[in-house]
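Table S2 (continued). Query chain:
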Amino acid sequence: MAYTREETENVEVDYPVQQLWEGIPKAIEKLEWTIEQSIPEKYCIIVKTEGAFLSYPTNIKIALVSINDKTTRMLIAGETPVTTVTSVLEFRRTRERIERFIVILAQHMEKNKKQP
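Corresponding output:
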């Protein structure tokens, strides 16, 4: 029997929404994930992570909401299909993939920080 394991993360980031939006594809590229859908007018992107031996890929939806000129709220929702056989192997995998994305994005943003 298959079901999905879901995780969410809500992060406030000290970057303007447009600057963060431009950095997300570069972080996804570095992670070697696939962009499944991009909705620029809503600052929303859906990606698929890599799978592994006895591991399904995770679908991650990333949505950005501008709080003010310098701060953006990033909503991240991950969903990984699991079965009764793979559920033990998949424990925390969705959370780890979300956390890895946040770290890679933060590294990219810091490296390419635009001066005001």
